[in-house]
Design brief:
By secondary structure, the chain is of the alpha/beta class. The chain has 16 helices and 16 strands. It is 38% helix and 21% strand. Strands 1, 2, 3, 4, 5, 14, 15 and 16 form an 8-stranded mixed sheet that branches. The protein has an 8-stranded parallel sheet with strand order 6-7-8-9-10-11-12-13. The longest helix is centred in the middle third of the chain and has 18 residues. Bound molecules: N-(iminomethyl)-L-glutamic acid and fe (iii) ion (FE). Fe (iii) ion binds next to loops.
Length: 407
């Protein structure tokens, strides 16, 4: 057993509603408390001196400075397994070309596909590990990582195997997602339908037998897949037991409707969602995932997070770290930027990157500081939790723990 503390404040995120708008008064803020950890899990939260008295044999990890403790941050949407750079796209976009125009000309995502296919698995493992390390130093203890830059059965497998290997080598938790339906690779010898069918019959069974992923994603957009051709792909994935998530409504509305119809866990992006899509999402159990890093990377509108919350959806915020639309790869900074543009409370932002992000990944064992949860924790060097977001990503964690061990 180990006692960590005392902390100036602990934001437990316990009993924070899953859906809808939140105010800071909804947060359970405990003052001058410590955490007792047993076997990597939170045993209890309480007064530092009382815990020491009640558990005299526990090790003590004393925290000297002022600190606010939060559940380890969760980044529910990234593409950090890739090779190469898209600085050229960034310059072209800033010179006036659009993301979809670049894709139409065979660049964009396909550019990263070519670089990722050329890379060895070892190279992909090391690139992913380097980015997971940065995540950890930013207080992110769970990161979702997608494939989608392979787009052949062998290359998708190479990516997902690299993600799995990086996960075993990293201290942080990784949730992998198969994004074989990222874009239709024009070098495929056959139709879009045949491409998707091949992934269903040749890739999906291997994902299960090799335990590479239990989540399937698709990009619904012009230049990618549409509500018609994606149907059999998602239906098959569902039938095989995969959780579904969708890149939806990024430039044009449409994907969120697919997400609702297929019973997806989350619909991610939603920058182009109108009131109609927002209402439909609010009436469903689909979690809305805002990706402000992509809005910043593309210089386009933010996800209507305020409206989504007010309508009653569950909103998670993720970094979307990827070489194309989201090169920044900084969850906290991008969440803070979304906060100020969309007028989100601290409670809404913290929930979006802890408890609600856990829900977006179907994880019930983390995202909250309460008995029985994983002791993945992050401490920020301040006595007032409001300081964390006020510094817009510039306040870095003082300490991060995974399963109760400091990393
Ligand atoms: O979430 N929009 C599709 N996929 C990624 C971008 C991938 C890329 O451009 O490499 C996204 O924005
Ligand atoms: Fe994405």
């Amino acid at each position: 057993m180990k006692i960590i503390g005392p902390f100036s404040q602990i934001l437990t995120m316990d009993n924070v509603a899953l859906k809808g708008a939140l105010q800071d008064s909804d947060l359970n803020v405990l003052s001058n408390v410590a955490v007792l950890i047993e076997n990597g899990l939170i045993h209890s939260v309480g007064d530092f001196d009382l815990l020491k008295k009640d558990f005299p044999n526990a090790d003590i990890e004393e925290v000297q400075e002022e600190n606010v403790l939060l559940p380890g941050l969760i980044d529910s949407h990234t593409h950090i397994c890739f090779a190469g750079s898209r600085a050229k796209d960034y310059a072209m976009r800033n010179a006036g070309k659009s993301y979809l125009e670049i894709a139409k000309e065979g660049g964009g995502i396909m550019d990263t596909v070519r670089a990722t296919r050329r890379a060895s698995k070892e190279e992909l493992v090391s690139n992913t590990l380097m980015r997971l390390d940065k995540q950890l130093s930013n207080g992110i203890t769970t990161t979702e990582v997608k494939s989608g830059y392979g787009l052949t059965v062998a290359d998708e497998l190479k990516m997902l195997e690299a993600i799995k290997e990086a996960a075993t080598k990293s201290k942080s938790s990784v949730i992998s997602t198969c994004l074989a339906a990222h874009i239709f690779p024009k070098d495929f010898d056959g139709s879009i339908e045949q491409y998707l069918q091949m992934m269903v019959s040749e890739l999906f069974p291997q994902l299960l037998s090799k335990e590479l992923s239990c989540r399937v994603d698709a990009f619904i957009e012009e230049e990618a897949f549409n509500s018609h051709n994606i149907g059999p792909y998602f239906d098959a994935a569902k039938q095989m037991g995969f959780d579904i998530t969708v890149h939806a409504d990024q430039f044009h509305a449409g994907g969120s409707k697919v997400a609702i119809e297929v019973g997806a866990i989350s619909a991610d992006h939603l920058e182009a969602s109108t009131d109609q899509e927002i209402m439909a999402l609010a009436e469903s159990d689909v979690i809305a995932v805002a990706l402000p890093g992509a809005s910043i990377g593309l210089g386009c509108a933010f996800t209507p997070a305020r409206k989504l919350l007010d309508a009653g959806t569950c909103l998670s915020i993720a970094s979307d770290w990827n070489p194309g639309s989201g090169p920044m790869g900084d969850l906290l900074t991008s969440a803070c930027v979304l906060q100020t543009f969309e007028k989100l409370s601290n409670a809404e932002v913290f929930a979006a990157i802890t408890s609600r992000a856990a829900a977006a990944l179907h994880l019930k064992d983390r995202g909250v500081i309460s008995a029985g949860y994983k002791a993945d924790l992050v401490a920020f060097p301040t006595a007032d939790f409001r300081e964390i977001l006020y510094h817009q990503g510039q306040m870095k964690p003082a300490k991060v723990w995974i399963n109760g061990a400091s990393v």
